[in-house]
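Re-run with default settings, no changes from the original entry. Doing this only to confirm the output is reproducible before filing.
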Amino acid sequence: MSLRLRKHIEEIITLTDAEFDYILPHFELKKFRKHQFVVQEGNFVDQEYFVLEGLLKSTYLNDDGKEHILQFSMENWWVTDYQAFYYHEKATLNIDCIEDVTVLVLTDFNKNKLCTEMHKMEHFFRIKTNMGYVGLQQRILTFLKFDARSRYKHLIEKYPQLYQRVPKTLMASYLGVSRETLSRFSA
């Protein structure tokens, strides 16, 4: 498990064994079962999650009770309700497990401690945050630029493993189409 985290971090920065030995205890290993909430709307959020195994979905429930899927998170992805995490607010999102999930949990306190004490980790998290922002921008632009069929093709090309793992009803919701429309796309 720790090897996966180290490999992930070293995609951006180089670490000595001593540096990684210092970083690792700042994380806590946690397991969640399928359908279990990792973050729940209305609760305070002071943790960020690095996905080691499994698949999660981040959703927003509107006033009419309709669930909107913002993102899926799989292995080597970071997830939390970032607005709540950064601004120390109550969550507006729900994040729950589509599969059994194993994560490394990093508290806000430990993240700030690592960034203060290790410029390398501050650099790592800045790059990861920038990449997340770009990913969110790309998601929004696909909704603005493409029709539903093109959004489906784009998703399958970019994340082919998601199509095999995400139930079709959730995939349809993520793309903003009905289950029947999704079936026509994949036929």
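The beta strands are 27-32, 37-39, 47-53, 56-61, 67-73, 78-79, 94-97, 101-107. The chain has two domains: 30-107, 125-187.
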